[in-house]
Predict the structure.
Amino acid sequence: SNQIVALTECRETLESEEFQNARQFVALELPVLMQNPELVQALARPFFPRELRPAGNVANFFESMGAFARFNIIDRTIACDLWCGVVLSAWNGLLPVVRIRRKLDPGVWENFEYLAVLCDDFTKRYPTSYPKSMRRMPLDDSA
């Protein structure tokens, strides 16, 4: 039952408007902001810059989710099957931030990285998680 609660909380967070906005920030605004040398310098200081707080929130959420997977609070296969796309997208979008923050703290967001590795391996092993023996529904208009 703990796993169901944890999975439900992860799903609710991922679907929340606040988290969707933060993911959009990582995808669209962060690359532009990372071209600002002053902001990059601020990122290399101990306190996380206020302007990048949505990026930190995304990384921290996946840090928690990675810990849940690492310590078997949620099943790794279920987490990967449900969320590997969003995890990998977030990891790739946040990579410049991770690189800078790791100079301050080599262990920052390691559980997020762990989850990203699990997801990367999962997508290589299972390009689709749809059962091979199951028929598919037609996707074209001719059916």
